[in-house]
Write a structure and sequence with these properties.
This protein has 714 residues and is mainly beta. The chain has 3 domains: 2-125, Orthogonal Bundle (Arc Repressor Mutant, subunit A); 169-416, Neuraminidase (6 Propeller), CATH 2.120.10; 425-704, TolB, C-terminal domain (Neuraminidase, 6 Propeller). It is built from 4 helices and 52 strands. It has a 7-stranded antiparallel sheet, with no helix packed on it. A hairpin with a 5-residue loop joins strand 13 (221-225) and strand 14. Helix 1 (34-45) crosses helix 3 (68-82). The two termini are 39 Å apart.
Length: 714
């Protein structure tokens, strides 16, 4: 050991020696890579001022061409090392067009340092558990147990460090932030994408993008190129949560040909382009994996999940390179444990492929050699990343990291390029008066907690119940806050399921929990006490509880292997009964009850017509009195759905190219009309107060762009 004089930065609980590239938290040495060290040194030198991306690339990667993803990964790793400040905010902040900066005071000093030997390096430790909301006050005595619990949990329960391919090159293919779908041509030279209600074709060699005129189709999802790259296949609905046709057109647009009817979720073409694999849904709650011969038109069902909720509707069945196997992903609604099955096309035999490190699963794609595939999956948190999985042993290696999610991977025919959609999502809660919806007050503050995106309701006229999820949590929990943003309180501490779509009668809050591996319903008081099980069943899914204002009846959607229906329960007698079973109706994950208790409503997952260019969804209005059902075709996002204050209309969101608007559809009117438009923000959720004088919005950014990964095989 020796003593030397050197410039030293001090910030929060850290000391950083820029010359030697060493970072300490008190007496603990934290290891950083050379580029992470350079980047942190640059940010500290700026003394809290923003450093633009251009300046960072110029100074840290001066002689190297790198993509934005490299910077994102390095920022992510530094943030993980530093943790958050006392208000739960990252010590490194980023803002669009401004860049990055350190958010806490920085002191630069010159002092005698003891240069520590590498033999004494200790493993990085966790920072204290970040607080969820601001403004937020907690006494020091209350914080100390949380800090101790967090440090112990991190030290002993954290996952084993995962391997990661360091040499990957990221290329940003789009920068508009509003893609809903994208696919790569087999030769890797063309990108087809959906932006708004339009399909575009981009030449990746010339970087030229052209809109495609596809006749008589107004909505698109699940794009896929044919094996020769000359045709595009797609579904004529922008949501995968309902039935649609699969169509075919030239890669330059024009006329279309119907390939299949009644497809649910997504689909895929066999590598030789002779067969189609898709989930068929025709007046049934069962979505059968169907193989269709595109030459003879013969169809054959080879696999049948027990019911809709047992597979991820965001995924497609994926053909192996030899066309003998198909990857099928199960992701139970409300479950953390996804399953991936390898199904033999000839026999329909299904065998689960165990991937112990991966929990939630999304889309997959085979590499051409058939010895591995890439899958979008979450290991221990909410962010989905790309993993390279070897077959058949299931060993997984991370290809991406960071605070973005990556999904919908597509691999070029030579296996050297991976296309994916990169997503960045954030939201906060805003409250407005009914008389002026445009004057909104922000009541939460955070970049990564996803406030209220799925779970949002008024507990009473003054308090709001909402869901929130911290960076490292696998599920969200419910919180309570008043309409001014004061007195936040955590209500639930669930570990198995996100308690979304809560409802309140002003005394109790009803919400979903995972019990017996199925969604059931709990009830708690507004202060979070007296947790009661309303349902505790081992069969069927009970979702989206809705309680009447008098607290007498609880309605909820239900489905099992035999079908779907709407149930209700007399809360005084605790008796469950079938309220409505209709072969033309299948309610999705959101059920709405009117304020006067006379109507129920939901988006119908089993639409009764093929949608025209004008409409993409169907709303069912159900009379509580006589159980009659009225169907209304609309153009909407299919989540959320609310009744207006006078119970004479339903309201839903409609996304457009740069924002979202709330639409109001009168029960006796032909067309929906906008009541609020957010041209630069996405509205994830909204809810009216019981007196209907205030609205709470979960709004923020939902940015999706196409990225290309290469050089991952080095």
């Amino acid at each position: 050991m020796s003593n030397e004089t050197n410039s030293l930065y001090e910030f929060a609980e850290f000391r950083f020696d820029g010359k030697r590239g060493k970072l300490w938290r008190e007496n603990e040495l934290i290891l950083l890579s050379p580029k992470e060290t350079e980047l942190l040194n640059l940010l500290l030198e700026s003394n809290g001022e923003f450093v633009s991306k251009e300046e960072i690339f110029e100074k840290v990667w001066a002689d190297t061409f790198v993509e934005d993803g490299v910077l994102t990964q390095n920022i992510y790793k530094i943030r993980k090392a530093l943790g958050n400040d006392e208000n739960g905010k990252p010590l490194i902040e980023n803002k669009t067009k401004l860049g990055y900066r350190v958010t806490v005071p920085i002191v630069k000093t010159s002092e005698e340092l003891e240069v520590r030997s590498e033999e004494k390096t200790t493993e990085p430790q966790a920072t204290p558990y970040s607080r969820l909301l601001t403004p937020y006050s907690v006494t020091a005595i209350a914080v100390i147990p949380l800090i101790l619990i967090s440090v112990v949990a991190y030290r002993y329960l954290r996952p084993t460090p995962r391997p990661q391919i360091e040499s990957i090159k990221y290329t940003q293919l789009t920068n508009t932030g509003n893609l809903t779908n994208a696919t790569l041509s087999p030769d890797g030279n063309f990108l087809a994408l959906v932006r708004g209600n339009k399909v575009f074709l981009k030449d990746l060699v010339s970087n030229r993008e052209i809109p495609l005129e596809i006749l008589n189709v107004g909505n698109f999802s699940s794009l896929q190129f044919s094996a020769d790259g000359n045709f595009l296949y797609f579904r004529d609905n922008k949501t995968r949560y309902s039935s649609a046709r699969i169509l075919k057109t030239s890669r330059f647009g024009g006329e279309t040909t119907v390939v299949a009817e009644n497809s649910f979720a997504s689909f895929s073409l066999s590598p030789d382009n002779k067969f189609l694999a898709y989930y068929e849904n025709e007046k049934s709650d069962v979505n059968r994996l169907t193989i269709k011969n595109l030459e003879t038109k013969e169809e054959r069902q080879i696999f049948e999940p027990l019911y809709t909720g047992m597979f991820n509707v965001e995924t497609a069945p994926v053909w192996s390179p030899d066309s003998k196997k198909i990857l099928h992903i199960n992701q139970w609604w409300g479950s953390l444990a996804g399953q991936l099955f390898v199904i033999e096309v000839e026999t329909g035999k299904a065998e689960e492929l165990k991937m112990p490190r991966l929990r939630r699963l999304a889309q997959a794609a085979w590499f051409p050699d058939g010895k591995s595939f890439v899958v979008s999956a979450s290991e221990d948190g909410r962010y989905y990343h790309l993993w390279k999985v070897s077959y058949p042993d299931g060993d997984a290696q991370a290809l991406t990291v960071g605070l973005s999610s990556y999904n919908q991977p597509v691999i070029s025919e030579d296996g050297k390029k991976i296309l994916a959609l990169q997503s960045v999502v954030n939201s906060n809660l805003f409250v407005a008066d009914e008389v002026n919806l445009n004057e909104q007050k922000q009541i939460t503050n955070g970049n990564t907690n996803r406030f209220g995106q799925l779970s949002l309701a008024w507990a009473d006229d003054q308090k709001i119940v909402f869901g929130s999820q911290t960076e490292n949590e696998s599920v969200e929990n419910l919180w309570l806050i008043d309409s001014e943003g004061h007195s936040p309180k955590q209500l639930t501490k669930e570990t198995k399921v996100s308690p979304n779509t809560p409802a309140s009668d002003g005394k109790f809050i009803y919400y979903n929990v995972n019990r017996n591996r199925l969604p059931n319903i709990n009830r708690i008081l507004l202060n979070g006490e007296n947790v009661n099980e309303i349902t505790n069943e081992s069969e069927g899914n009970r979702r989206s509880p809705q309680v009447t204002a008098d607290g007498n009846w609880l309605y909820y959607s239900y489905f099992d292997a035999k079908g779907g229906k709407i149930m209700r329960r007399n809360l005084a007698e605790t008796k469950e009964e079938v309220f409505l079973e209709n072969e033309n109706l299948q309610c999705g994950i959101f059920l709405a009850l009117s304020n006067d208790g006379k109507y129920l409503s939901c988006f119908n997952s089993r639409p009764n017509q093929n949608f025209s260019e004008k409409y993409n969804a169907e709303i069912a209005i159900i009379s509580v009195e006589d159980k009659s059902v009225k169907y209304i075709s609309v153009d909407g996002d299919r989540f959320p759905l609310r009744f207006s204050s006078d119970s004479k209309a339903v309201e839903f969101t409609l996304s457009f190219e740069e924002g979202t608007q709330i639409m109001r559809q009168g029960l006796d009117e032909k067309e929906a009309k906008p009541i609020l438009q957010m041209p630069k923000d996405h509205i994830f959720n909204f809810a009216w107060s019981p007196s209907n004088k205030k609205i709470v919005l979960s709004r923020g950014q939902q940015l999706r762009d196409a990225v290309l990964l290469t050089e991952f095989d080095k």
